[in-house]
Amino acid sequence: MEFLTPMGWDEALAMKADRPDALPLAGGTDVMVELNLTAHRPAALLDLTRIPELRTWSTTANEHIRLGAGVTYRQVIDELADQLPGLAMAARTVGSPQIRNRGTVGGNLGAASPAGDSHPPLLAVGAQIEVSSKTRGSRLIPIDEFFTGVKRNALAPDELIAAAVIPTARGPQQFSKIGTRNAMVIAVCSFALALDAHTEVVGTGIGSAAPTPIRADEAERYLTEVLQGLRLWRRRSPLPESVVRRFAELVAEAAAPIDDVRGTAVYRRHALSVLARRTLTWAWDEYWATGQSAA
Amino acid sequence: MRITCTVNGQARELDDVWEGESLLYVLRERMGLPGSKNACEQGECGSCTVYLDGETVCSCLVAAGQADGREIRTVEGLSDGERLHPIQQAFVETGAVQCGFCTPGLLVQIEDLLRRTPDPTDLEIREALAGNLCRCTGYEQILEAVRLAAGRIRSTA
């Protein structure tokens, strides 16, 4: 097994072009588990931890955060909780402090697990994933098209994930996850919600309840229409209980869960409806209360 | 491959390291530093916690090649010669050591906590130690040790 250690991004892309079978390695919190516990051996490891440009984030001209693929969960929590509250909430639920010190959003996207904690909040805000190759340069993949199957993503063999380009929050965001305890759990299911008070649009993301992370399209459409139709964004009044209930039903219906060691399909669907109801109530209360205090 | 790194302040160089092995394996099997414990090999238990460039990590999840050129501090680097670190002393006094297997990882993680948060609340202690499992389940004594050590470190600071 070869160990490739590019010191810069161009060098990394050149190595990946030469060795498309090389497995990218960032924080190691997925890849090393496989190396330690299974007989599977990649032909080569491509260590991405020495590339400075991957470790930083910046704000783009149109108020997006360009989050380098090597930014750790720890950095997201410490530095981006205001701009990316949904992603920061999800980051706080990842593993333990030791895992959050190493694990990266880019690594999560690379592994593309249906249970990846960063995926639902990225879906809820319509992030784009910037990927690059030596010969074709960079392209942006909408997050909806990024996950192509269980632990599969839309990367070509010679491509690497450069960054996630994420709209800055313009309204309350929430993330919630079901597990046997608060730390060190793979989600039984998870749900992210983003309310955009400017465009008056609702975004969602579901984790661990389908072959890939998915959005709850119908639920988004329903709630967006109701909030606009009843002029609730302007009135800043509590949501009718019937609206919350219908939204929760539609979120549960969007899922395609399976029975496995962590939970049954029936449980997951039920839990998702509870998460949808809770996160919507929390987010709308925050929106409503903020408006009251500002008025 | 060849690995050069600094471990507990000492420059170390190793040859013929297998590319896929973990920093934990390097520390225990090649450098004779068995303080960091090997249990789950998947980042679940925290007994292999060490500092890598000043941040606590599970050394079982760091590839040997990733540690090349880096600075590592292990549980062996906590005491001042024969004099125990205040956290180690507090563990002894409060009975926080039972079988002792989780102790090294806890000591490193607690030192990191107290450097950042000298007077942690119980909730902060629990959050900081959420990735360190004690299968003897002596968590109450461990919390007591953290409070005792925190008080002593603050009073001598």
Automatic annotation (TrEMBL), chain A:
Keywords of the record: FAD, Flavoprotein, Oxidoreductase
Domain of life: Bacteria
Gene3D superfamilies listed in its UniProt record: 3.30.465.10, CO dehydrogenase flavoprotein, C-terminal domain, Uridine Diphospho-n-acetylenolpyruvylglucosamine Reductase, domain 2
Domain FAD-binding PCMH-type intervals: 1-171
One of the record's GO molecular function terms: oxidoreductase activity
Matches recorded under InterPro entries: CO_DH_flav_C, CO_DH_flav_C_dom_sf, Diverse_Substr_Oxidored, FAD-bd_PCMH, FAD-bd_PCMH-like_sf, FAD-bd_PCMH_sub1, FAD-bd_PCMH_sub2, Mopterin_DH_FAD-bd
Keyword presence, Oxidoreductase: yes
Signal sequence extent: none
Protein name: CO/xanthine dehydrogenase FAD-binding subunit
Native organism: Kribbella antiqua
Highest classification ranks of the organism: Bacteria, Bacillati, Actinomycetota, Actinomycetes, Propionibacteriales
TrEMBL record, chain B:
Ribonucleoprotein recorded as keyword: no
Domain 2Fe-2S ferredoxin-type: 1-78
Cited InterPro entries: 2Fe-2S-bd, 2Fe-2S-bd_dom_sf, 2Fe-2S_ferredoxin-like_sf, 2Fe-2S_ferredoxin-type, 2Fe2S_fd_BS, Beta-grasp_dom_sf, Diverse_Oxidoreductases
Sorted UniProt keywords: 2Fe-2S, Iron, Iron-sulfur, Metal-binding, Oxidoreductase
Lineage: superkingdom: Bacteria
GO molecular function, one term: oxidoreductase activity
PANTHER family: OXIDOREDUCTASE WITH IRON-SULFUR SUBUNIT (PTHR44379), XANTHINE DEHYDROGENASE IRON-SULFUR-BINDING SUBUNIT XDHC-RELATED (PTHR44379:SF8)
Protein name: Carbon-monoxide dehydrogenase small subunit
Organism: Kribbella antiqua
